[in-house]
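Lecture notes, part 5. Sequence design as translation. It can be helpful to think of inverse folding as translation between two languages: the language of shapes and the language of residues. The source text, in structure tokens, appears below.
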């Protein structure tokens, strides 16, 4: 699952609009839209701000899906 898919699914699960998510996490609406669109160049610190709402964070994973 990509970050974009995770955030979109969780946002909908929590009943939030993109604007709600933006306001609750302190990031701009444009960032939320780009994050959910899967923009390949996002700031990880801001991604972690959003993911923190869902008790998740960006981390390192090997290509075979295991932790290093």
């Amino acid at each position: 699952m990509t970050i974009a898919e995770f955030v979109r699914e969780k946002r909908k699960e929590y009943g939030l609009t993109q604007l709600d998510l933006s306001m609750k996490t302190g990031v701009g609406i444009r960032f939320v839209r780009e994050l959910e669109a899967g923009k390949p160049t996002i700031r990880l610190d801001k991604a972690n701000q959003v993911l923190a709402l869902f008790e998740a964070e960006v981390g390192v994973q090997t290509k075979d899906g295991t932790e290093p």
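The translated text above is only one of many valid answers, since several sequences can fold into similar shapes. The domain at 3-53 is CATH 1.10.260 (434 Repressor (Amino-terminal Domain)).
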